[in-house]
Amino acid sequence: MSGLSMPSQLFVTGTDTGVGKTLVSAALLHALAARGRRVVGMKPVAAGLVLQDGAWVSEDVLALRAASNVQVPAALDNPVALPDPLSPHLAAARAGRRLDIASLLAAQRHLCRLADVVVVEGAGGWRVPINDQETLADLARAMGAPVLLVVGLRLGCLNHAQLSAEAIRADGLELAGWVANCVDPTMACPSENLDYLRQHLDAPLLAHIPWQATPQAHLIPLSLPESWS
């Protein structure tokens, strides 16, 4: 990473949906908590809820809460929870809601007053829309936060990872690091793909997560800089 002191906020994005953003965000929360930080995870928009104990909840949000050591109202760590597992702008339309960056940013800024570090997990990839004009990349830009990129190791990841890194930097943000997460155990030439990304992403590799049927966030070792102690 940049070698600077621990930032007060981080934005976690991915090369696509289903690449392990929640897993990595939770691992990051565990790692920072182990360094004595008061941390809280945030999922600004969760699309796709499950019925649990009689309530509709987001499994991603529950995982982030379990990894946080600061407990906050649901309206702050997950201001928007939408039933359908769709792109946020489509899920919001089905629910009769209109999303906007201003309200999401207000909740995030409130969290920054309650914790040392706020880890914000996006949805899908970098340019996922929340309405006809705005994407979650606009939230990251408004935050001005360093970005961590989760790369799902599978066929196509070289293109997806490089385009994502280019887009993050084009939006004026720092790609502070990336995590390689094996999401396809049958992927051909995984080490060669990883080596290529090491050479071309121009950012520190924080972790290489092998394929696991049931990964556990607190067991994932992240190579965080010593300056973040």
Describe the structure.
This protein has helices at 21-34, 59-67, 74-77, 88-94, 101-112, 136-143, 157-170, 190-200; strands at 9-14, 39-42, 45-47, 50-52, 55-57, 80-82, 117-121, 147-153, 175-182, 205-209. The protein is α/β, with parallel strands linked by helices. The protein has one domain (9-228): 3-Layer(aba) Sandwich (Rossmann fold), CATH 3.40.50. The longest helix is centred in the N-terminal third of the chain and has 14 residues, at 21-34. The mean pLDDT is 95.
The share of residues in helices is 25-40%
- CATH level-1 class: Alpha Beta
Distance between the termini: 13 Å
Order of helices and strands: EHEEEEHHEHHEHEHEHE
Q: What's the tally of helices?
A: 8
In order across it, which strands form the biggest sheet?
Answer: 2-7-1-8-9-10
Instruction: Assign the CATH topology.
Output: Rossmann fold
Strand content: 15-25%
Shape: globular
Low-pLDDT stretches = none
Rg computed from alpha carbons, rounded to a whole number of angstroms = 17 Å
Structural class: alpha/beta
Short description:
The protein has 8 helices and 10 strands. It is α/β, with parallel strands linked by helices and 229 residues long.
